[in-house]
Amino acid sequence: MALAFDEFGRPFIILREQDQKTRLRGIDAQKANIAAGKAVARILRSSLGPKGMDKMLQGPDGDVTITNDGATILEQMDVDNQIAKLMVELSRSQDYEIGDGTTGVVVMAGALLEQAERQLDRGIHPIRIAEGYEMASRVAVEHLERISQKFEFDISNYEPLVQTCMTTLSSKIVNRCKRSLAEIAVKAVLAVADLERKDVNLDLIKIEGKVGGNLEDTELIYGILVDKDMSHPQMPKQIEDAHIAILTCPFEPPKPKTKHKVDIDTVEKFETLRKQEQQYFDEMVQKCKDVGATLVICQWGFDDEANHLLMHRNLPAVRWVGGVELELIAIATGGRIVPRFQELTAEKLGKAGMVREKSFGTTKERMLYIEHCANSKAVTIFIRGGNKMMIEETKRSIHDALCVARNLIRNKSIVYGGGAAEIACSLAVDAAADKYPGVEQYAIRAFAEALDSVPMALAENSGLQPIETLSAVKSQQLKVREYPFYGIDCNDVGTNDMREQNVFETLIGKQQQILLATQVVKMILKIDDVISNSEY
Amino acid sequence: MPIDKIFKDDASEEKGERARMASFIGAMAVADLVKSTLGPKGMDKILQSTGRGHSVTVTNDGATILKSLHIDNPAAKVLVDISKVQDDEVGDGTTSVVVLAGELLREAEKLVTSKIHPMTIIAGYRMAAECARDALLKRVMDNKENAEKFRSDLMKIAMTTLCSKILSQDKEHFAEMAVDAIFRLKGSTNLESIQIIKKPGGSLRDSFLDEGFILDKKIGIGQPKRIENAKILVANTAMDTDKVKIYGARVRVDSMTKVAEIEGAEKEKMKDKVNKILAHGINCFVNRQLIYNFPEELFADAGVLAIEHADFEGIERLGLVTGGEIASTFDNPESVKLGHCKLIEEIMIGEDKLIHFSGVAMGQACSIVLRGASHHVLDEAERSLHDALCVLSQTVNDSRVLLGGGWPEMVMAKEVDELARKTAGKKSHAIEAFSRALVAIPTTIADNAGLDSAELVAQLRAEHHNEGCNAGIDVISGAVGDMEERGIYEAFKVKQAVLLSATEAAEMILRVDEIITCAPRRREDRM
């Protein structure tokens, strides 16, 4: 602990209760931080690529998650170290922004830190390293832009999109049926995409999972799936050409917000109140019937009496439907959410071609399908799988695939995957390094080397000889400088040509990876003092 | 510079080989636990709950055993999970799926120690599973067209399922019951309309299937005990005091006379309600909620049978079988659909009185009354019967059947073995391992029956070398025999689910190379 003394020999109090805090300064601080960052990256390194392994995470309540999605692993790891938390943030921001490449970004950052450590040992000042990295990342991003290719597809020919989604899915446990899942993801995105504005609102895609059945039974429903059943067991299970009243008011007598009391003191009042009540229920049901609704979907519950009246009048109803689902139903069926019975009109009803209840397996699980909606802008992906973990993992994988498809619709540029882009960047950065005078040159070279670590990890995970493979691919790449499509042959297909293997990644995803990783590493390098509360 | 710890205090991290070891061992331990219950001669387990009363369950149902275990090993939890799903989805084969997954992992462990990468093993397993499924598909039998044959298939499936359970003594009796019940459903898989009533006393053989509907309730005092051509109103309404539902209403009186008046009005209201109900022209009224003494008296006066507090399922089922709607308002007697049945009477089973509805309008529902020496026997009998019913109802939908007694495993193993020979590369080791894991199931069945498994399986393998062979292990006689002749059948859907989920689970566990355990959430000491 550094101490300062005044001229009388008394110590200055710089930090309160400083002897209870541990403090790391200067090069020690940087080394410690780098070590922590590397430790996190090391955990994820083996999950990279199509042959990456999974992690089993046991949560604080004993629940088990099995995944190889970087963001999920880090999120659930429950880390305590500050720098490790930064890495967690890093992968999370990649997840929010792009949705894919969450493992890659952490591995990349880990590699950059490792290289930085070597430069520090050489005596290069951390700020110079940081600046060198900054320059290098700019070079790399520009180079990516240059080598990126336009990716052609349209509504009728979405095959290229499917191929890209398959690349994403191939690294997940679901790769057994990646083809069908990729198709589902692409169709879902295209269904909700606004190709004019190049925008996709992923909120319109609902992902539902139910344990049981096979992964192959996963389906895309052009409509909404609600995990509810009809409020009365004897209501019809199938309604064609449904006119749906979407209500947010309960089938109950009104509850005014202001406090009030209705005093009953005579028999007459008791009687009138009773009549009033019956009439009220009757009116509510009649109102729905009058506007021509054939199905009522309500956010709240019904009273037994109301329930029977609905059943009696042959008006099927669903109760306790969640707010989000209600909104989706409204969007899909083109109806309006009605907060009061008085405001119910025929125009506000949603329309759907088919509403049916479907039951699964031997248990009493039932779900409500709302299909053939007037406005098919909302879709549902319904995932089936052997167990809960499988479904959770499939959900995450589908989410990644959706994000990739969305990114491609937003921006049609792609780069080749399988480490091809990294190798190309590494070559470009290495070449650019010589042009910079000064100490930064070393940092730039280090950056180039760090870029190599991604294909290296890919090769390692696929059981190939990492150094041998990388140098072979690199020399192939050098021959065709402008069209870098040579990558690591993870699936043992026999060719390094990523065009043939159909392995793409989105340009923005890759750029984001490099930028984010550089930023975090810069931040970590600039820390030269760590003050933390020691164990009390 | 030592690395600072990244995780919180109590969290632990296991990597690489150690992680794999931990999950293999956990999964195999669970598989070994249920292994001895597999097959017709499998043993039972006693489970004692930690809850109050330390209630005891005796079972050999895999899913039930695993459900009650408290497991800490994450890999073992995966296995528990698949058996639960198997139970939900097809109802039977819950032990087989865990045993198969355990065997697959045991084989995988050997491969891993001989330095084959887990990914290679997974690739091999996938190919093998695909091939095994195709092999089964090639050999399935489908008798959907031939109703008589189909029924006998179902009988055989039910008997095969039941023979590994406590009901094996009377399996024919129960299989007959289960098949009859399933045929009444006419293809729907809704097992809710089959009601199982457990009454201790008598012996298992005294159990019977009743075509009507039995409600475990007593008839009110002073009401008719027997009604012919009953018209039933099924209701869900409050028959105590009708609350005023308008928010904020309350009764406020200032003198005793007023109280009496209001009370009178309330009584009047109830009387009104009863009258309205009576206006439906019914002679039986079943309510989900309580019926208070006053309305009960009124019903008794009118000669109507009133049954109170039938639980929710009872009501739904009654509505279903009698064809009546569940009513909550009674203003329009002419348009309410009433339920009908030929005869309502009180019957005695053992010492209990039950209400029996026979000759109901809808033929779908039926009741199975189980009799047995003790609650444990009855619980286990119910589980076994439930398994059989589940399998049958699934088979009605997917009528493909296979032979049993280790026959499907041997067929699959043979095909998979052939595939292994054709496949080049390291994968073939994994494919071979898959076939070994498949053979482990007949081996376990034979072992559990105290037979010479090595001898029997070798014989079986030799038999299966011939094309189109029907040989399997007949545990009863303790020899290899023709399964078709002995009538040992299994449903294709069950076998397929076992195969696929077991492979999926094994794959999932194999892919793991690191286990991170978070610090357990601290609980306040309630001591």
From TrEMBL, chain A:
Q: What's a single GO MF annotation on this record?
A: ATP-dependent protein folding chaperone
Task: Please tell me where this protein is predominantly located.
Answer: cytoplasm
CC terms in the record's Gene Ontology section: chaperonin-containing T-complex
| Transmembrane segments annotated in the record for this chain | none
| Superkingdom per UniProt | Eukaryota
- Similarity-based family: Belongs to the TCP-1 chaperonin family.
For this protein, the record's PANTHER family field holds: CHAPERONIN
What function does the entry list? Molecular chaperone; assists the folding of proteins upon ATP hydrolysis. Known to play a role, in vitro, in the folding of actin and tubulin.
* Descriptive protein name: T-complex protein 1 subunit epsilon
Q: Which source organism?
A: Brassica carinata
TrEMBL record, chain B:
**GO MF annotation list:** ATP binding; ATP hydrolysis activity; ATP-dependent protein folding chaperone; unfolded protein binding
Record Gene3D superfamilies: GroEL (3.50.7.10), GroEL-like equatorial domain (1.10.560.10), TCP-1-like chaperonin intermediate domain (3.30.260.10)
Q: Which PROSITE patterns match?
A: TCP1_1, TCP1_2, TCP1_3
- Please give the CDD domains that the UniProt record associates with this protein: TCP1_beta
This protein's major location comes to cytoplasm
GO cellular component term, pick one: chaperonin-containing T-complex
Supply the Pfam families for this chain. Answer: Cpn60_TCP1 (PF00118)
Q: Where in the cell is it found?
A: Cytoplasm
Q: Which domain of life is it from?
A: Eukaryota
Q: Keywords of this protein's UniProt record, alphabetized?
A: ATP-binding, Chaperone, Cytoplasm, Nucleotide-binding
InterPro entries xref list: Chap_CCT_beta, Chaperone_TCP-1, Chaperonin_TCP-1_CS, Cpn60/GroEL/TCP-1, GroEL-like_apical_dom_sf, GROEL-like_equatorial_sf, TCP-1-like_intermed_sf, TCP-1_chaperonin
Task: Show the NCBIfam families listed in the entry.
Answer: chap_CCT_beta, thermosome_beta
What task does this protein carry out? Molecular chaperone; assists the folding of proteins upon ATP hydrolysis. Known to play a role, in vitro, in the folding of actin and tubulin.
Q: Which family does it belong to?
A: Belongs to the TCP-1 chaperonin family.
Protein name from the UniProt record: CCT-beta
Q: What is the lineage of its organism?
A: Eukaryota, Viridiplantae, Streptophyta, Embryophyta, Tracheophyta
